[in-house]
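Intended use. Records like the one below are meant for learning the mapping from a protein sequence to its folded structure. Do not use them to infer anything beyond what is encoded.
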Amino acid sequence: MSSADSLWHGQALHSDPRRAPKVLKPGYKLVPWGSRLKTTESNLNTEGMSNSIINDELTDLLTNGLKELALAISVQQQEKLLEYVGLLCKWNKTYNLTAVREPEKMIGLHILDSLAVLPYLNAVNILDVGTGGGLPGIPLAIARADSSVTMLDSLQKKTTFVRQAITELGLKNAWVVCERVEHYQPLAKFDLVISRAFAELSDFINSAAHTVVDSGRFFAMKGVYPHDEIARLPATHKVEQVIELSVPQIEGKRHLVVLKKA
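Structure written out for the chain above:
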């Protein structure tokens, strides 16, 4: 992946049919959490984590960032997020999973960036298209244990890492598939398909439209407001809303484009 992943960016490895996503009933609706979100005070226990890069500075960056986002993330969830950063740093040396090398920058550019969409996410079954090293899929799976997150990527080295991370983090609600999205045929369609710096909006819709239920949504995580991309959307889909996001520890614009069937 190019440096764009720091700015937002077949064979199923888990194919147990019992883990197939359940289809959300008609009437899907976006419900911002708003005032329901509360910041969790924490004193994270990082002892025993698999990578020595986890330290007080990273812990503080994560805790403070979550406070700024007003997200209710438990101590245990925060520990898993930090452990994921450790795994990403370790494997990145060999697998080139992300252009971001410094763990301190990964907190903002990857973890907080991925979690910034949580207040607008009201989905049970989620497909992360072009997940790369598991972004935003793994942070979302950690933060939303009540959701099922399937991560899709066509590069085997990246899905190998994601599968290993799922195992080491003990995530029971996450799966990974090595396949191009246009060829991917899920056992059941998803109620939300999300991408982070994956492709232009029209390409995202055209390649992934077959994976989402009729009442579902597409979340496209973008940097600057994508005026030109919106103008090139196919007639089959339309923009429901564009949300400007404020992500701690990151310079530059962030927008969440929410799309649905026209």
